[in-house]
Amino acid sequence: MKLVLQAHKLQKALTTAKEVVSKTLDPSIVLSQHVLLDFSQENQITFLAGDKEINHSVIITVEPNEGEFLSFPKEFEIETKDGHVIKQLSVSCNSFVDAVTGLNGKTLVTLEFTKPPLAGELTYANLTYETTVVRVEASNGQGYALLNESLKDAVAISTLDVSERILKDIIQSTIFCVSVKASKHTSLHTLIMSLTPTKLKAFGGDYSRIALCSYTFQGTPYVINGFNGFAEDKPLTFNLSRRVGAELLRLLSVTDDTVKLTFHLTASGHVQYLQVVKNDEELIFNLTYSKPPMYSHIVPETFADDVVCNATEIKDKLNRSIKFGDIILINSADNVLTLSATNSGTLDSFSTEITNVKTNPDSAPLNLRIQGKHFIELISPLQESARFRQVAPDEMLLSLNFVTKKVPVFVVRDLDNNELDRTYVLTPYNSVASVDNSSK
């Protein structure tokens, strides 16, 4: 087998492949550190990287008039028991990347197998360019985690067309709240997406902070053909891990181009696989499912807007405050907001007033302590969202609310986005705003 491609094509195909491979978490997959090359289409190679959670593929076209070449002899083909012919090989991804990184894009690179690899055998392939020869680990590719072979098991398939910018904004403004700490509750480790006929919602959070985001579809309600029970009160739910979320953020742009999400549903009404195609790239995610936690016991339907303030100004004052202490005391008076911090173990303290605020005369003054860094971390993605929409971040307003339903919580709302409804819940210091994972 001989393949000759320009270096820039290999660099394009392998850049993302390396990212996927380097984050592979399942050591049980022998070939998880390889990139799979599929030659089933004439004059095209599909570069696939992945494991049991993520598959990423890029299609590269061979152009003979540019000096490129492909020869895949019949002896390299593998015939399955059902008569299906497989044309694929795999090579070590990291070695492949290291060999072509930094090359002039027009440099012709040759990948060559001198003999067909045996089943279950790790062998090598030769990678050559100019006067350089690199030997890379290789195999016949059997045993690779091909998620697309499992897509046919779905009982129903549905697609959703959504703006790339909107989807990217939903994910980036919520996934940072997903817990990285060990917990018995799966729901704390994933971003839970909930799809109804009229909305796409995202829930993410742990015991110290929660992000809630809702996007209302424009036009006619969303319908899943051939799948019963889908309604506002019976949403389609699926979970995105931090790793899956990061891959989506990488793929999605901030344009208003449409990206197609294909949901592969199980009989129980869950999304088993999510397929995303953009230009010549495809991502397939094997998703987990956990019962969405309920937040209605702590988050009300409406808010009094106890204090309305400028996001940039309060972020600047918070950054100054946390240098003196992690816990920030927030007090409000008539159109004044005060932030205070104390350096424990010393007599050092910090206090600053924000006068460019509007307080609700019908609300009780704010008087609570919060983790300063958690407050700052939620403002940053809101500012990023403003940049996505080409709106000046300095003009963004936040609504601050102290709410006591089942437990006391500090709620921050974004007032300047008419596309996404976003609410953030922070647990006041020494209080517990646990999510409800009960089955009631």
TrEMBL record:
The keyword Zinc belongs to this UniProt entry's keyword annotation: no
GO biological process: DNA strand elongation involved in DNA replication
GO MF annotation: an example: DNA binding
Gene Ontology CC terms: DNA polymerase III complex
Keywords associated with the record: DNA-binding
Keyword DNA-binding: yes
Top-rank taxon: Bacteria
Family matches, as PANTHER family: BETA SLIDING CLAMP, DNA POLYMERASE III SUBUNIT BETA
Protein name, entry field: Uncharacterized protein
Species whose genome carries this gene: Psittacicella melopsittaci
